[in-house]
Specification:
This protein is of the alpha+beta class. It folds into three domains: about 10-135, 2-Layer Sandwich (Methyltransferase, Cobalt-precorrin-4 Transmethylase, Domain 2), CATH 3.30.950.30; about 165-230, no CATH class; about 235-325, no CATH class. Helices cover about 35% and strands about 15% of the residues. The protein contains nine helices and 16 strands. The protein has helices spanning about 20-35, 60, 65-75, 135-160, 190, 240-255, 260-270, 295-305, 310-325; strands at about 10, 40, 45, 50, 75, 80-90, 90-100, 105-110, 120-125, 130, 170, 175-180, 185, 215-220, 280, 290. The strands form seven sheets. Strands 1-2-7-6 form a four-stranded mixed beta sheet. It is globular, with a radius of gyration of 24 Å. About 20% of the residues are buried.
């Protein structure tokens, strides 16, 4: 193997599931995310680099949900990543790809194993991950400032097209709205579906509840004449997270056929899912997790039922595209 460890590549012989090893992987992944993304490749002997394949089954045993929980416990914002196993002849190789963070920097928020320290920011340099230097930190801060500036420019451009007399500014973080003395009116048919709680208190059963600060009027349907449709949350039409897509599809076509990687990488790339507004949604402001529509799930189910080799073929296309991208 001619390729050496670099700003975008880390090489390991086997995946280790110990807490110390997870801390090391997490540090590397945070460094990749704060830079331009990168790969951790398992199955390669270091010094000299030799393709030997993985000698244990830890990569197959890796639980993405548990590992994501480990990452989220130690770093914020969340690290976005995918993993996949490749078989070449009789050799098995594991690959973890880390996406560049949309909101930088990703910061260590908890003292952990190894040298993870609360408040540290890790960055990927040539062949190593270490605490960020001042020059790179200044660059990340400037990128963040530029992003916020562009967001404000877009917000003000949109605000300039709205009539102040018919608009209300609502802070979705605090739940407070600048209403100029006006009140929010809620249809009584909706009241039964909502749980109002006092500020600082949670619903008894732990379920999500609506927190309202201010006065709420309950109105009968016949008492209101609706002149304008109230803007609705787009996420309502996309209720399925990645794990939900996997669960629902496998319930319909057979357990184990669709994987998390199929949804988050293979199909997403092969069919340009991010560009399909009827399939995919991600809040650009909150940097929330990807969400999918019922139409997307039904499409996947129909493809699998129509062609039993659909997923296998798409995985091969994805692997070939990934290989071509690395060579390029």
């Amino acid at each position: 193997m001619k390729r050496r460890e670099s700003k975008s590549l880390e090489i390991k012989e086997n995946l280790n599931l110990s807490q110390d090893a997870k801390a090391l992987y997490a540090k590397t992944m945070a460094g990749f995310a704060n830079h331009e993304g990168g790969y951790i490749l398992f199955g390669v002997r270091n010094s000299p680099h030799e393709l030997i394949g993985m000698s244990n089954n830890n990569f197959e045993s890796l639980d993405p949900a548990q590992f994501q929980q480990f990452l989220s416990n130690h770093f914020a914002p969340a690290i976005d990543w995918v993993h996949h196993q490749h078989v070449v002849g009789e050799l098995r190789f594991g690959l973890i790809y880390v996406f560049p963070a949309r909101v930088k920097p990703i910061v260590c928020q908890r003292q952990g194993r190894g040298d993870l320290r609360d408040g540290d920011i890790y960055y990927r340099y040539q062949g190593e991950t270490k605490r960020i230097a001042s020059a790179e930190l200044h660059q990340l801060i400037q990128e963040r400032v530029d992003t916020e500036k562009r967001s404000w420019q877009e917000f003000l451009k949109t605000a300039a097209t709205i009539t102040p007399a018919t608009s209300v500014v609502l802070d979705t973080l605090t739940g407070k709205g600048a209403t100029d003395g006006r009140r929010f009116i809620v249809d009584e048919r909706l009241i039964e579906k909502l749980k109002f709680i006092q500020e600082g208190r949670f619903a008894d059963d732990g379920e999500l509840a609506l927190r309202v600060i201010g006065d709420v009027d309950v109105a009968r349907p016949e008492a209101i004449v609706v002149e304008h449709e109230v803007a609705r949350d787009q996420a309502i039409d996309y209720p399925f997270l990645t794990r939900d897509v996997v669960r629902v599809v496998n319930e319909a076509v057979g357990a184990g056929k669709l994987t998390t990687n199929d949804v988050s990488a293979v199909l997403k790339r092969n069919f340009n899912v991010l560009a399909r507004a009827d399939w995919f949604y991600r809040n650009p402001v909150l940097n929330s997790s990807p969400q999918y529509s019922r139409a997307y799930i039904e499409w996947i189910i129909s493809q699998i039922r129509r062609d039993a080799e659909f997923l296998s073929a798409q995985r091969q296309i994805w692997r070939e595209a990934l290989a071509a991208q690395r060579q390029g």
